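Q: Can I see a sequence and its folded structure?
A: Here is a first one.
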Amino acid sequence: MKSASRWLVAALAVACAWPMGVVAQVVREDGAKSIAGVLYTIGPRAGAASEWTFMSAGGEILFASLDADIYRVMAHGEDHTTTVTAAADAGGGCSGEEGGPGLFKLKVLDAYGQVLCEASRPAPPPGWQRDPRMACVLPAMKSQVTYKILVELANPKGEMVQPAYPFLLNISLRKIAKSGTNIQSAIAASSAGGF
């Protein structure tokens, strides 16, 4: 019976993803770096964001994406697999249906602590993709300043289904290419960003 229910869950997942393709993870660009982290719902770090700082003089774009909801997590001591999107999926399932805001948010703060960019679950299509993706343009400055990128739970005080949510943050900082130049020069300029 357990195998039949696992097969049914897998079939539903494929059926929901089929119009958009069955590949669940976006292929990362060359040069993107990844950071593994965990957000907690219980204990001393419950509800706290994970954050990192970086320097930039601007004239760059920070591309950031999260891989978290797409992963499956084994529940300890139980003979079944649960998904980390169970709380967000309470209202629906397939593409185009309401399914909640997703579990995670990305933010970039400027040198003054103001939110420069923010991203949560992208609007459909594709409906199956629940992890946030961001392209944050950093304004040109006279010198380098410190920025901060944060990964947060979208609703840390809401009903969460597990004590910890692992994630993989993928980041790439690219210089903005000058329009009208030779394409090879533009590619070289955009490849010369930080990290």
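Q: Show me another, different protein.
A: A second, unrelated one:
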Amino acid sequence: MADLRLDILVFPTYDVGTLAIYDSSTYPDSPPIVSGATISIDIPSFGIVSLPFLVLETNIFNSSNLGISDIGIYEPLPDGIYKLKYSISPATTNYVEKTIMRIDVLQEKFDSAFMKLDMMECDREIKTQSKVELNSIYLLIQGSIAAANNCAETQSYKLYKQASKMLDNFIKNNCGCSGNNYQVNFI
């Protein structure tokens, strides 16, 4: 007989509007007899919502069932640090907590900028400069995720904001760079 070990996994959905959480727990009985399975999700800028959680299933959440938007209205979920707590009755002793940095909105914007790079009709230095800028932004995004995974929330948000600011500037300038950074730093 297996011991009770609660665990959850957050899967990428590649969709700004959904959050997928899987119950990867080990239960002492099969099928598991679980009462009061719930998940509490601390949503950035919206607070904590507690919802029923399906055992040994992938649970999909969106703005509507999280209470961010009206029922039937689907909006992008906000980027930021999400704190998850999966529990079964009694919740005081049987729970697991995870913290994740969600960056799907920023990643979608980055992907769009990256895809435009090949379509830009720039000279070699400008195209190379654009790649350098996008690589710098990507590293900031990854740094934000790493900081959140290591409980450095302030650093995570700082890196996220810097990446977002650089990406907005990159998109606004539409490859309007001079290529000087590449020539100065890499030639």
